[in-house]
Amino acid sequence: MTASDIFRERFGTEPEGLWAAPGRVNLIGEHTDYNDGFVLPFALPQRTVAAVRTAAPGEWTVCSTFADDPITFGETEPGEVTGWASYVAGIVWSLRDAGFDVPGARIALDSDVPVGAGLSSSAALESSVLTALIDLGRLDLPLERRPALAQRAENVYVGAPTGILDQSASIRCQQGRALFLDCRTYEVDQIPFDLAAEGLAILVINSNAPHQHVDGEYGARRKSCEEAARILGVPALRDVSVDGLGDALGKLDDEVMRRRVRHIVTENQRVLDTVELLRAGRTRDIGPLLTASHASMRDDFEITVPQVDIAVESALAAGAHGARMTGGGFGGCVLALIEADRADQVVAAVEKAYTKAGFTAPTCWIATAGPGAARL
C-alpha cells in the first residue's frame, strides 16, 4: 500500500500532492556534527513519501502504512504527542515556534527507509512532512534554513540529542553527489560521487542489531564532548586541530574523555582528507580512511557492537578497500567501499561470518547517491 492508497482509504479523497525525502548514509564524519565539525553524507534511494492535503486551520491528522490508527493533534507543545507521530507534531511545532503560519493538514506516510538501522528514517519522515507543509503553506523558508528547523523538532520536541547531519542530508543532498557540510556555518559543497563510473560501489550491510538515539549512550557522548570543549576553552571540539591534539589531551585528566576527544579531532581530519581525495579522483584511496574511522569509533568513541565489527572485518578480508560503521552507533549499518564486481563475494563472506558467530543474518544492498527532499 502506497502513501496515496492509505490517504484515499483513511480520508476518502485525493491528496493535493506527494512529497518525498530520503534516508542517508554517512560516508565519513561520525558524531562530528554536534561538535561543529565536518560530515560527508549522501542520500539513499530509499525514502519516506508523504501524501498531503490541507485541512482546517490548527488541526493535523497523520496516518501511515506502519501504524494502525490515525492520530489527530492541534497546536501542541513538546512532549504532548509521543511515539512516531511526535516527529510530525515536532515539525509543526518547530515551524510555528519560528513564527510561520502552518496550514492544517491531513498526512499519510509510507517509507522504505529501514527503521533502527542508522539510516535516518526519522529525518526522512521529518523532511518529507516539512517540505510538504512549506509548499502547501507557501512559507518563505530557504533551503539552507530548513535542516535546523527539522533538527529542532527532533531535539526539543522528540527529545533526541542529534546533530544536524541527518536533516541536512535528507534535505540538501543531490543526485550523484556527497554533501560536504560544515556543521558550524552550514556551508555545503556538492562533491562528485559517481562510483559506478569508476567500477566501484558502496555496499551497505544492515547488521540487524537495532539502535536508538533517544537513550543515555548517545547523550552521554555528546555531554562528554561539550564538557571537554569547556575545559579546553574552545567553542567546540572542531576548534582543536590534529596538530594541537597532544596538547589538548594533556589538559584532560579523564581517560575516557581523552578518547572521546581524540575520535572527534581525528574524525574531522579524516573527513577533510576524504574530500580532498574525492576531488582528486582518487576514490579507492579513501578506503583506509573509512577503516581508520571505524577503528576510532570502536576503540575511542566506543559506539560499535560485535555485529558491526564482524561485518567490517569480514568485508575487509573479502577485499573491500575500506569499511566502517555508519550512523550514531550501538547497532545499525556498515558501509564497505568495494569493486562493483565483488559485491556477491563480499556479501557471502559477511553472511558466513554472521552464521559462524550465531548472529541474525544481515541485509545487504548497493547504495547510490540520490536526491534530497522534493515534491514528486
UniProtKB/TrEMBL annotation:
Which SUPFAM superfamilies does the UniProt entry name for this protein? GHMP Kinase, C-terminal domain, Ribosomal protein S5 domain 2-like
Per the record, GO CC terms? cytosol
Q: Return one GO MF term.
A: galactokinase activity
Q: Fetch the NCBIfam families from UniProt.
A: gal_kin (TIGR00131)
* This enzyme's EC code(s): 2.7.1.6
Question: Which PROSITE patterns does this UniProt record tie to the protein?
Answer: GALACTOKINASE (PS00106), GHMP_KINASES_ATP (PS00627)
Classification of source organism: Bacteria, Bacillati, Actinomycetota, Actinomycetes, Micromonosporales
Q: Which organism is it from?
A: Paractinoplanes ferrugineus
User: What are the residue boundaries of the Galactokinase N-terminal domain, all occurrences included?
Assistant: 7-53
- Tell me which PANTHER family the record gives: GALACTOKINASE-RELATED, MEVALONATE KINASE/GALACTOKINASE
Q: Which residues form the signal peptide?
A: none
Q: Where is the GHMP kinase C-terminal domain?
A: 275-354
Instruction: Name the source's superkingdom.
Output: Bacteria
Q: What is this protein called?
A: Galactokinase
- Which Gene Ontology terms describe the biological processes this protein takes part in? galactose metabolic process
Residue intervals of the GHMP kinase N-terminal domain = 87-171
Family to which this protein belongs: Belongs to the GHMP kinase family. GalK subfamily.
